[in-house]
Amino acid sequence: MIDYAQLAAIAAVLRTGSFEKAARQMNLTPSAISQRVKALEERVGAALIRRGPPCTATPAGMRLYRHAEDIGLMEQKLAADLGLQAPDGEWPTVRLAVNADSLATWFVAAMAGAENILFDLVVDDQDYSADWLRRGEVSAAVTAHDAPIPGCQRLALGSLRYIATASPAFMKRWFENGVTPETLARAPCFCFNRKDGLQTRWQEAVFGQAAASPTHWMPSSQAFADAARAGLGWGMNMEIMVRGHLADGDLVPLLPDRPLDVPLCWQWPRSAGPALAPVTKAVLVAARKDLIPPSESGF
What we know:
alpha/beta, Arc Repressor Mutant, subunit A, D-Maltodextrin-Binding Protein, domain 2, 7-stranded mixed β-sheet, two-stranded antiparallel sheet, 13 helices, about 45% helix, about 20% strand, elongated
């Protein structure tokens, strides 16, 4: 059996990134934390933590960290069922993978709806966030619409709607003769990072091909909108984020009535379903409020 004091020490080190911070969090000395970690590593027969600034988990350490999170969620559910209230701050932590655009728009409301839970978020593109769940490094993930990950359940959330947008001045300079593959090849565009394929997907959906445009690398959802308003380029902006700018005329669509809907789903291990139920409920409520409903977005 696993010693839960040792498991708590592992979780604290990985959550805070250092033995010293973990010691302060648990009201212990760094030496005591180190002894507990070493004892559990000897029991498991494998290294659990990569020492360094910051400390990170080995694959075995991540599995134990996830196990500690699951225990915390189950204990919280049991306490709620028994009518017990956990002291402030003594809340379980859940590690989730979410795409940056969801985090910038609707997902914070989901976090607020799951009371008395601390969140450890991994931010990745929606086409790659499922990989974190496959590797067992998160307890659940907001992913692109695809088949369920083995051993997981999937819930369709709806779609984020993107609109290819630019400032009126940018449109006049670069697209005065129309938006075509040729003009798109010359006009600067934005990309979030090397995983971002939205601009390419939109062009392929509209024209059947994508231009190799001059590119600004812009790893910020808000900066996408701000930079487009400033006339630096065009990009796929979330309708939920720029609808006010579209209404005011600060931004205009490159092609009216040609949005790109990106379906999202929520996936989690079946074994963790009951413990994650409050988080799943909060995610569903927030998604249904702000996303394009599944019935209207091709689910």
